[in-house]
Design goal:
The protein has seven helices and eight strands; from the N terminus they run ααααββαααββββββ. It is an alpha+beta fold. The protein has a domain of 174 residues: endopeptidase fold (from Nostoc punctiforme), CATH 3.90.1720.10.
């Protein structure tokens, strides 16, 4: 009886061991482990502990990298389409700037052309009016008299029955509302040493009585505020309204106004209104004396000067 009990117990033990071995084999095949197996394997497999820790660290690092990648996405460079778009944008902007500059240049040129055109109209009208005012001087009987006479200022004048060559010019401009007495005096006051001071004058400063009645001063004034033109022997270069000065020898100068009347001897040449000692006359004297100056003066119109012409 005892033997049968022992046999039964032994059989049960063997069956239990076989059952455990089968469970362990199945667990290994499934790739997992039970608590019992891990507890029994820890003291007997120290090498497995050493290989488990690096694998855990790698998984942690990979997990941290994944979290970092999700929190801050990587920067991406500009693609080809964006680069081409920016290049075209710069090109269109440059073309726009070029077109703007060209448009501004056209506007400036057109404005300058309009100013020149209107100026030519004004100058032509002014020249004709000045020439007509000079011809109108022939209606007055004037005796030549260059005496120093105190006169009022502005718009001062010597007695109407006397005068010299400069008075013909002064009175012709005054007919158009231009007071050369005031204009010359103001300019001499600003630039006294730009004007000549002949020894016989002995000036210490401007003199409203006589400054504007001297040819030398009118030449400087017309040069500073008008247009000094070339002195030539071509009659077509001298137009109505022009001012011409001649040298009479020494420091003597003479002045007259070109008017719109042709010379009987040469239709290409205009005649002159002047006063050279016998009162105001209309004569063909353009080339009868050495020309020392050729000017155009239109008040309010600054014209470029010709530097090649000597005073």
């Amino acid at each position: 009886m005892v033997n049968s009990f022992v046999n039964t117990a032994l059989k049960r033990k063997i069956s239990f061991v076989a059952y455990g071995s089968a469970i362990l084999a199945l667990a290994n095949l499934a790739g997992c482990s039970t608590n019992t197996v891990e507890t029994e394997a820890k003291p007997s497999t120290p090498q497995k502990l050493a290989t488990t820790k690096p694998q855990t660290s790698i998984r942690i690092i990979q997990r941290n990298l994944a979290v970092t990648a999700q929190s801050s996405p990587p920067r991406r460079g500009k693609d080809q389409h964006q680069l081409e778009f920016e290049q075209k944008q710069r090109w269109y902007h440059q073309q726009w700037e070029v077109a703007q500059r060209a448009n501004e240049a056209r506007q400036r040129a057109q404005m300058a052309w309009q100013i020149q055109r209107s100026q030519r109209v004004v100058n032509t009208d002014y020249s004709e009016r000045l020439a007509e005012a000079a011809v109108d001087r022939l209606r007055y009987r004037v005796s030549y008299n260059g005496a120093y006479i105190p006169i009022s200022y502005p718009n001062g004048d010597v007695p109407s029955n006397i005068g010299v060559c400069t008075d013909t010019v002064i009175r012709s401009y005054r007919r158009l509302g231009v007071d050369l007495q005031r204009l010359v005096h103001e300019d001499i006051s600003r630039a006294f040493y730009s004007y000549p001071n002949l020894p016989k004058w002995g000036l210490q400063g401007p003199d409203t009585n006589i400054d504007h009645r001297r040819v030398h001063n009118l030449k400087v004034f017309f040069t500073r505020h008008g247009q000094r033109l070339p002195v030539t022997g071509n009659p077509s270069d001298y137009r109505p309204g022009d001012l011409v000065t001649w040298s009479l020898g020494g420091d003597q100068e003479h002045i007259g106004i070109v008017v719109d009347q042709r010379s009987p001897s040469d239709p290409r040449r205009f005649m002159i209104v002047h006063n050279i000692g016998q009162g105001e006359k209309l004569e063909d004297v353009l080339f009868k004396m050495p020309i020392s100056g050729h000017y155009r003066y239109f008040p309010g119109s600054r014209q470029p000067q010709l530097a090649s012409v000597q005073y």
